[in-house]
From TrEMBL, chain A:
Its cofactor is [2Fe-2S] cluster. InterPro entries: NADP_DH_HndA-like (IPR028431), NuoE-like (IPR002023), NuoE_N (IPR041921), Thioredoxin-like_sf (IPR036249). This is Formate dehydrogenase subunit gamma. It comes from Thalassospira povalilytica. Keywords: 2Fe-2S, Iron, Iron-sulfur, Metal-binding. Belongs to the complex I 24 kDa subunit family. The lineage of its organism: Bacteria, Pseudomonadati, Pseudomonadota, Alphaproteobacteria, Rhodospirillales. Gene3D superfamilies: Glutaredoxin, NADH-quinone oxidoreductase subunit E. Signal peptide: none annotated. NCBIfam families: PRK05988.1. Pfam families: 2Fe-2S_thioredx.
TrEMBL record, chain B:
The keyword Glycoprotein does not apply. It comes from Thalassospira povalilytica. Pfam families: Fer2_4, Fer4_7, Molybdop_Fe4S4, Molybdopterin, Molydop_binding, NADH-G_4Fe-4S_3. Residues 18-96 form the 2Fe-2S ferredoxin-type domain. This is Formate dehydrogenase subunit alpha. CDD domains: fer2 (cd00207), MopB_CT_Fdh-Nap-like (cd00508), MopB_Formate-Dh-H (cd02753). Keywords: 2Fe-2S, 4Fe-4S, Iron, Iron-sulfur, Metal-binding, Oxidoreductase, Repeat. Residues 169-200, 213-241 form the 4Fe-4S ferredoxin-type domain. Belongs to the complex I 75 kDa subunit family. In the C-terminal section; belongs to the prokaryotic molybdopterin-containing oxidoreductase family. PANTHER family: FORMATE DEHYDROGENASE H, RESPIRATORY NITRATE REDUCTASE. Residues 96-135 form the 4Fe-4S His(Cys)3-ligated-type domain. Residues 248-304 form the 4Fe-4S Mo/W bis-MGD-type domain. The keyword Cell cycle does not apply.
Length: 157, 959
């Protein structure tokens, strides 16, 4: 059953009320909203803007700056592949191509069955173990083609 | 004449009194502490290349072009963000810097269209200038990489490309030309204070976004034009420039919309106006503007504008176009005939708050010296006449006490009965800037206006009073201040009449004025009221700004005096940052009042019965003046209905639409034998006119306007009058046709006559205005350069006068038949009765007047958003559409009166201010019910108007 916009607003407002006294509350609120809904639902930004007495533009500017704030829900699993220099040098591009072909998605897209979302990331701090990836929040180093296949199997792709 | 290019210093001026001296490229320069190296360089005449810096907004340091080298410091700091320091040695052009700048420019240009020759900003593009300045010759990166320029790339759609946004009627947003300097975003935030723009995304994906990636028109944008002015490229560009091309000369003049009186550069190509750009040296606006002054000048060329004089014997006849000579002879014959038949007093006139001081002076001169009576009045009758009365009584002069710069020193503001973000937008931006710096705001208004809460602004208190209870609220605020001992005894003892103060203090201390006692009347929570009073009395520099929500009441004059009491009791008069500030409605309403437009006052607010003053004018004019005050507008109309008043000359005012009780005005006009309307358009009043004299716009004449801060600003002619004559020439020609020997050849001669007769204008000359830009009256030997703040060393009248302000409820009461209170106001994009703004693209924002009604009241009546409703009062009824909002309290409804079809003044009553006859527009008991469409009166009115506007073209007799 899908939630009405009004119910959604009530939940967003509750989050705002809870955090509004923090110093610089916008980012923590955005995080909490994403935690609550799995993404930043349409309309939430307007509610937040109203609550914090900011303009719609300002809230949009902040939310759109961070790629981690999603406009839609992600798949059940999230695979992030590092595209920064060290990983590129160790074959991250080929690895990424393999995954994109396998999942039939491009960057920042989710598979048709809503199971997997593929995202780029720029440095996981694992340069010594490049190429690196992150699967559902867990970092993985030295990701060979085989290793990636096993990962994809595990998440049911 | 040439194009005025104002120096862009790159960063705002520093205000410190301490100075520092540094060396830039071998030149010594001394600047106030806190000045940026960039600004210091510019002051030494050295232009450091820059893109993201402009002196209207704070330094940002993003473009990396303004880098300099400082001896003894590492690296290449940005000159915009580096403060000048004593002994600093700066180099702005070194081999290292040149190389860096070229590299930066290459990157910019690699993602910018190369269509300079066909670009609208060609010749006015800072990117182009900088490419030239750094000597850019080639772009090593080429143009084939990722970009925002090409619609298609490598045979595929370019996902980064964004099409032009042309939704705003006045400017376009072309993202392909954007260099993401964010000057527009910062101008919207820092100058305008709307925060409608942002940079969305990050890195190479960064784009300027109105709202949440919306069209400009749908976003929070209020179209003030600050972003367009700030844009260094053609990304944000006036459509008029795209259409016409770059201007070749410009003239500084004054906006003819509201009482803020913004200075603009009218940028011209020949006699064609290309654009209006706010002038940074304008002391009222400091380089800012609003959608009206900046863009809404198209009415000057609108097809509805009447360019030929017209006459008719009977108002049911179609108009007959005639020559100027014939129209003036016709008028003079009629006027003379009327006076011969009905007596000297059967004629009168109305001066215009839209016209210049000089024109207004001439109209009242024509009436007093030519008609031989004092039947002259002006539209201030229906707006700020209580201000004149109230401030004259308490302080001794009929004007606001401050300049607009004063707001920069204010700590706490009471805003009562004014909605500056809509009515006085440029002042609102200046106020908002101060509020963002920490000043506190108390709003007294029945409606939740934008300033109560909008991005980054929040009033500490909103006293949402019931319409008509201003006096009760103000007296109660004074009650708190006096009974809690928060008044400024030293100030009162020094500056005011102590006995009168004590009488007043005893009066306000009476428990019946306590917030608790009057909460039932005003509807304002007592605790909120007490806190507001304490905040104002103890918050530092306190300033009171007010508008028509104060004056247009049966107790308008009392409210003005209650405001004056409050300011005096708290010691908030006579220095920057404080004061009583009426926000005057029209561009020259202050001036028209100053120029003797009232029936009892000669120029300079001197009573007609004062023989010494009359002597001055009689000497110069060579006539004997009538010493009896003449008729006010409502009295003229009454006398017309009674048959004793037969002819009127109305310059630039639409009394049928703007004055109360439309039906009575119509009856008065219909009873006259010669109604002369001198205007740009066939306004509503002209439906009852026998002579129409076409008027000229502010672009077509020389003169002066006096704004709400008493500032006399020059209006300069930039094009030939399309109707043939400036308005002052038309009045002069009419005076001559009536037998007056007037021979002015330029308005400066009229100003000389004003200065010679009026002490507060004694030193005003066009030469002085040319030199100083503008001056604020009084301008005389005591204050040769004018008076920014009044009552500095004592009140004009001597001692400040406290007046007891008893609250008397208006006779207009709600009851079972009319249970709601209607109050009226304005909207940003439209101006007054809309004669001008309705004839511009501003209608994109406000096509029709709407009735704001609270959800609770709407539900009870089964009214939904957008429904036609019938709005009825004891006076009449009209129909319009409803919008449902909780900005108004339950029991209160609100509408604007910009469109003649709405006929809001059919509804308003004939109750008026007890002292000045100013109509009580702000309170009318009404009922609202569902309706199918326009009322019978509206349909009949439209039919009559259409009938009355028929024009027969001129037939030349010779052929």
């Amino acid at each position: 059953m899908s939630e009405t916009t009004e119910d959604q607003n009530v939940r967003v407002e509750a989050i705002c009320d809870q955090m509004i006294t923090m110093e610089g509350p916008l980012l923590p609120i955005l995080h909490e909203v994403q935690e609550e809904f799995g993404h930043i639902p349409e309309g939430a930004l307007q509610t937040i803007a109203k609550k914090l007495n900011l303009s719609r533009a300002e809230v949009h500017g902040v939310a759109s700056f961070y790629h981690d704030f999603r406009e839609e829900k992600a798949g059940k699993h999230i695979i992030k592949i590092c595209r920064a220099e060290a990983c590129q040098a160790m074959g991250a591009d080929a690895l990424a191509d393999q995954v994109r072909r396998h999942l039939r998605v491009d960057w920042s897209q989710t598979t048709a069955d809503r199971k997997i979302t593929l995202e780029p990331v720029f440095c996981l701090g694992l340069c010594a173990c490049a190429p690196a990836a992150m699967v559902d929040g867990k970092v993985v180093g030295r990701v060979t083609s085989d290793r990636m296949n096993r990962i994809l199997d595990e998440v049911g792709a | 004449m040439s194009l005025i290019k104002e120096v862009d210093y790159g960063t705002p001026a520093a205000k410190s009194e301490k100075t520092v001296t540094l060396t830039i490229d071998g030149k010594n320069v001394t600047v106030p502490e806190g000045t940026s190296v960039m600004r210091a360089s510019m002051e030494a005449g050295i232009q450091v290349p820059k893109l993201c810096a402009t002196d209207m907004v704070d330094a940002f340091g993003s473009c990396r072009l303004c880098l300099v080298e400082v001896e003894g410091r590492n690296g290449t700091p940005a000159s915009c963000t580096t403060p000048a320091a004593d002994g600093m040695v700066v180099h702005t052009q070194t081999e290292r810097l040149k190389k860096i700048r070229k590299g930066v420019m290459e990157l910019y240009i690699s993602d910018h269209p190369l269509d300079c020759l066909t670009c609208a900003a060609n010749g006015d593009c800072e990117l182009q200038d900088m490419a030239g300045a750094v000597g850019l010759r080639d772009v090593r990166y080429g143009y084939d990489g990722g970009n925002h320029v090409e619609v298609r790339q490598n045979g595929e759609e370019n996902p980064r490309y964004m099409a032009k946004d042309e939704t705003n009627p006045y400017f376009t947003y072309d993202p392909s030309k954007c260099i993401v300097c964010s000057r527009c975003v910062r101008a919207c935030e820092e100058v305008q204070g709307t925060f409608a723009l942002t940079i969305e995304g990050r890195g190479f994906e960064s784009r300027v976004s109105p709202g949440m990636h919306e069209d400009f028109l749908d976003s929070e944008c209020v179209s003030c034009g600050a972003c367009v002015q700030a844009c260094p490229t053609a990304t944000l560009q006036e459509k008029s420039v795209i259409e016409i091309g770059q201007p070749e000369h410009s003239v500084v003049t004054t906006c003819a919309y509201c009482g803020v009186g913004c200075s603009f550069k009218a940028e011209m190509r020949g006699e064609e106006l290309v654009r209006m750009v706010p002038y940074k040296d304008g002391r009222a606006n400091r380089g800012h503007s609003c959608v009206k002054g900046r863009f809404a000048y198209g009415y000057a060329n609108h097809k509805d504008r009447i360019l030929n004089p017209m006459i008719r014997e009977n108002v049911n006849d179609p108009w007959q176009e005639v020559s100027w000579e014939e129209a003036l002879r016709f008028t003079a014959d009629k006027f003379k005939g009327i006076q011969a038949k009905y007596g000297k007093g059967a004629l009168g006139g109305i001066t215009s708050s839209r016209c210049t001081n000089e024109e207004t002076f001439l109209v009242q001169k024509l009436i007093r010296a030519g008609f031989g009576n004092n039947n002259v009045d002006t539209c201030a009758r229906v707006c700020h006449s209580p201000t004149g009365y109230g401030l004259k009584t308490t302080f001794g002069t009929s004007a606001g006490t401050q300049d607009f710069d004063s707001v920069e020193h204010t700590d706490v503001v009471i805003l009562i009965g004014a909605n500056p973000t809509d009515g006085h937008p440029v002042f609102a931006s200046r106020l908002k800037k101060r509020l963002r710096q920490g000043a506190k705001l108390i709003v007294i208004d029945p409606r939740r206006i934008d300033l109560v809460r909008s991005p980054h602004i929040e009033a500490v208190a909103h006293l949402a009073l019931r319409p008509g209870t201003n006096v009760a609220v103000l007296t109660s605020l004074s009650h708190v201040i006096v009974t809690e001992g928060l008044f400024d005894e030293t100030f009162v003892r020094e500056r005011c009449d102590w006995d009168e103060f004590q009488d007043w203090a005893t009066f306000v201390s009476d428990p019946r004025h306590s917030p608790e006692a009057i909460a039932g009347v005003t509807g304002v929570d007592a605790q909120t009221m007490r806190e507001a009073a304490r905040a104002f009395a103890t918050g530092g520099n306190g300033a009171i700004y007010y508008g028509l929500g104060v004056t247009e009441h049966s107790q308008g004059s009392t409210t003005v005096m209650a405001i004056a009491n409050l300011a005096m009791a708290t010691g908030n008069i006579g220095r920057p940052g404080v004061g009583v500030n009426p926000l005057r409605g029209q561009n020259n309403v202050q001036g028209s009042c100053d120029m003797g437009s009232f029936p009892h006052e000669l120029p300079g607010y001197r009573h007609i019965q004062d023989s010494a003053t009359r002597d001055i004018f009689e000497d110069i004019w060579g006539v004997k003046l009538d010493d009896e005050p003449g008729l006010r507008i409502p009295n003229m109309l009454d006398a017309a209905v009674e048959g004793t008043f037969k002819g009127i000359y109305i310059q630039g005012e639409d009394i049928l639409q703007s004055d109360p009780d439309t039906k009575h005005v119509a009856a008065g006009l219909a009873a006259m034998e010669c109604v002369v309307v001198h205007d740009l358009f066939l306004n509503e009043t002209a439906n009852y006119a026998h002579v129409f004299l076409p008027g000229s716009t502010f672009l077509e004449k020389d003169g002066t306007f006096t704004n709400a801060e008493r500032r006399i600003n020059r209006v300069r002619k930039v094009m030939t009058p399309k109707n043939g004559f400036a308005d002052w020439e038309v009045t002069q020609n009419l005076a001559r046709a009536m037998g007056q020997n007037w021979n002015y050849t330029h308005p400066s001669q009229v100003m000389a006559e004003i200065a010679a007769t009026t002490p507060s204008f004694a030193n005003v000359t066009y030469d002085l205005l040319e030199r100083e830009g503008s001056v604020q009256w009084p301008c005389n030997d005591k204050a040769p350069l004018g008076t920014p703040v009044m009552h500095m060393d004592g009140f004009v009248r001597g001692k400040g006068k406290f007046v007891v302000t008893e609250y008397v409820a208006t006779d207009e009461r709600t009851g079972p038949r009319f249970p709601l209170l209607l109050t009226t106001g304005r909207i940003l994009s439209q101006y007054n009765v809309g004669a001008q703004t309705r004839r511009t693209e501003n209608t994109a924002w406000h096509k029709e007047d709407l009735l704001e009604i609270h959800p609770h009241d709407a539900e009870q009546r089964g009214i939904r958003e957008g429904d036609w409703i019938r709005l009825a009062s004891r006076s009449g009824e009209t129909s319009l559409r409803a919008t449902i909002t909780d900005r108004v309290a339950p029991g209160v409804v609100y509408t604007t009166f910009h469109h003649p079809g709405t006929q809001a003044n059919v509804i308003t009553t004939d109750f008026t201010d007890w002292a000045t006859n100013c109509p009580e527009y702000k309170v009318t008991a009404v009922q609202v019910s569902a309706s199918n469409g326009p009322s019978e009166w509206q349909v009949e009115y439209d039919r009559q108007a259409e009938q009355a506007r028929r024009i027969k073209p001129r037939v030349d007799a010779a052929e």
